[in-house]
Amino acid sequence: MDRRNLLPIGQFSQASGLSVTALRHYDASGVLVPAFVDPVSGYRYFRRDQVRTAQSIRALRQLDIPVEEVRRLLGGGEEELAAALQAHLRAAERRLEVQRSVVHSLLSRLTEGAEMTHRVTVRQGAAERILVRGATLDNSGLDAFLRGAYQEMYEVAGRGPLTFTGPAFVRFHGVCDDENDTLVEACLPFWEDGAQPTDLPEGMSVRELPESTLACTQVEGAAAAFPQILGAYDAVADWITEHGFAFAGPARMVYRRWTGTPDHPDNRLEIAWPIDEPADDGPVPSDRLIVA
Q1: pLDDT recorded at residue 287
Q2: Which residue range is the domain that position 244 belongs to?
Q3: Spatial separation of the C-alpha atoms in residues 167 and 180, rounded to whole Å
Q4: Which of 57, 141, 150, 264 could form a Cys-Cys staple with 137, CB 3.0–4.6 A?
């Protein structure tokens, strides 16, 4: 074996900026395989042209890209790698935006208190019959899901045509952010004595929501966009707990005024949370499925 074009692992480590331990790990995981392994000593040797590959691996790992993903990206072409890096950059910028918003929200709560930013009121919610499309997802898929769900539901409603009795709203059955997924339901309320939807596609249903008491706050413009809107949910949750009420159903995001652009200054959303007096006999049922 001609070793003149090979570097022993120690020298290769210095040239690439990867430790000997890391090189052994990347060999075992198939990310960077030595050009030659001495059958007697087990010593690893790398080609000189593998230095740039090793430097790329080091850079990708500094971006916290998992080892398996690094192996896949290096096995693809340059266009795929460039696209992946652009996507990673956009995700990193989004995480920074979320972190910046969270820090500002915490600082505001420390200096002013959530009640100074979000005024919470109580209103009565009438019993409603609603058209529902649900999915389990995190925040990254929320906008696309809601756009598709409402488009499909409006098509179904138009065949009736249904008479709407209030604005569209979304029910969140848990935390929906960049780290958690939950059941999300897009809802359209319609008049139960009028035309009824027929031939519902799979995944769409009709439900009845009971009369309820709702703790609410409204947000407008940039405050209605993610992640700023999370402060409104926190404010309502704080108000409910501080005033001794029980949570009686999923939180709702009501489209009081919606332009279609998440951070448009004319947007106005309402965060409405069903509440009840605390009870010892378990949670209050929140809705009933209607078989259409």
Answers
A1: 54
A2: 121-290
A3: 27
A4: 141
